[in-house]
Amino acid sequence: MSLTVLALILIALGMTAYVSGRARALASAGGDSRALHSLPRYYGAHAAMLALVPAVGILALWLVAQPLVLSGAVSGMLPEGNDSGLMLSDVRRVADGLGAAVAQGVVNADEARALEADGTLRALLAGVGAPLASDVSAPVLAAAQEWRRLDARGDLIMAAVALIAALAGLAIAWRRTDKDMRARNRVESGVRMLLIAAASIAVLTTIGIVLSLVFTTIEFFRIYPASDFFFGTTWSPSFGGGSELGVLPLLWGTLYISVIALLVAVPIGLFSAIYLSEYASPRVRGIVKPLLEVLAGIPTIVYGLFALLTVGPLLLSVFGRDGLGWMQAGTAVMTAGLVMGIMLIPFVSSLSDDIMGGVPQALRDGSYGLGATKSETIRQVVLPAALPGIVGAVLLAASRAIGETMIVVLGVGAAAKLGLNPFDAMTTVTAKIVSQLTGDADFASPEALVAFALGMTLFVITLGLNVIALWIVRRYREQYE
């Protein structure tokens, strides 16, 4: 049974539970809704929740756990001495390709189970949208076929368990429903629990990301010295051995580009926010602000191409060999910094404008009443009152600049070095994370694990920015109050 069909069946059961819950409650009250403790819709909602919530919870847990169980079941079929993670990825791709071939009618289920690992298999998978980098080995094909068999059996068991849970919830709701049941209280408690669960997803996701980075980073430092990583000035990875993985050149490039971007975005964005909030008429504001926020919706790959094809050649024509002679190529720190600064303007401007717009008008009126001019009111009243939000906007822009990838990949180059010339090519942490995880690398090697150490380093830097911003906000807020 497909997941779509199962979802439709569960929706139908939920609607049936809702209708039967209402009918059961009204029947227990002799058809008089005034004799009910709660409104009839709460009895229906209570029955629908008992029918759907356990079934949906089972589906969610099953869909998460089933791939892990299948990976453990087929891993014993793969030869030892290879990267099990990469081979399991190949097994998943082949299994998905066989499923697509059966769904498209290229082969039937029996033919898919009887396929052999020859050259035609790779062409067959490519024809159904599942291309592979190399031919499929016999162990991988056997593991993929076993994966499909176990996956189909697991789907049937999952559907049966979910339907049984839904029917059991419907039966319990039917038995418990009567006119004296506090249906509204139970529904509100259930909704509160669902909201708590939804809010917990973000927290649990953050914890999972941090733990995955921590454990993988620890694994990296077991095979590569932490002192060489944090204090090394040479970045020279080599999958053949003898790598030098000093992070200082990458951090320098990241911070250098981010500083240039903030020097562009913060003044322009803040001045734009002051104009829109304090000087612009409603008509001008209604036109300018949406146009300014269009910049936030442009994909970063477009900014990267803009840096590569427009800004880089423009800077090269002025500062290159034909101009001042400071720049050797279009890819440079200044190129990426300027384009990234343009990208960050809406983040600073929009948030700062909203914060300044939230400053009470009474503060402005009091300042005008004391004889202050408009500019003095903005400088001495509005900006101090809006400082926490402005710091938050700058922090968001700084975090976005530090974590940006496509602009620096296309606009800054790949040279990992320390230097002060903003017209030289450098590189960043995010660019090297991409390069280190590109291709079929051995994930047990330091050259691949270093990507997670770089990610952990960025996480710590961002966390430090948050702490500093919180300290600044509290200090200035105390002075203002």
How is this structure best described in words?
The chain has helices spanning 3-28, 40-74, 84-103, 109-114, 119-127, 138-176, 183-223, 226-231, 248-279, 282-293, 300-319, 333-357, 361-369, 374-403, 406-411, 429-436, 446-480, and strands at 235-236, 244-245. Helix 1 runs antiparallel to helix 2, helix 1 (3-28) packs parallel to helix 6 (138-176) and helix 11 (300-319) packs across helix 12. The model has no long low-confidence stretch (mean pLDDT 81). The longest helix is centred in the middle third of the chain and has 41 residues, at 183-223. The protein is mostly helical and 481 residues long. The protein has a two-stranded antiparallel sheet with strand order 1-2. It is built from 17 helices and two strands. The chain starts with a helix and ends with a helix. The protein is flat.
Features:
481 residues; mainly alpha; two-stranded antiparallel ribbon; 17 helices; flat
Discrete helix count: 17
Portion of residues in helices? over 70%
Number of strands: 2
Structural class: mainly alpha
How many whole angstroms does the radius of gyration measure?
30 Å
Strand order across the largest sheet: 1-2
The fraction of residues assigned to DSSP E strands is under 5%
Cα-to-Cα separation, first versus last residue: 63 Å
Q: What does the main sheet amount to?
A: 2 strands, antiparallel
Oligomer: single chain
> SSE order, as H and E?
HHHHHHHHEEHHHHHHHHH
Please tell me the overall pLDDT. Answer: 81
Shape: flat
Q: What are the low-pLDDT stretches, counting only 5+ consecutive residues below 50?
A: none
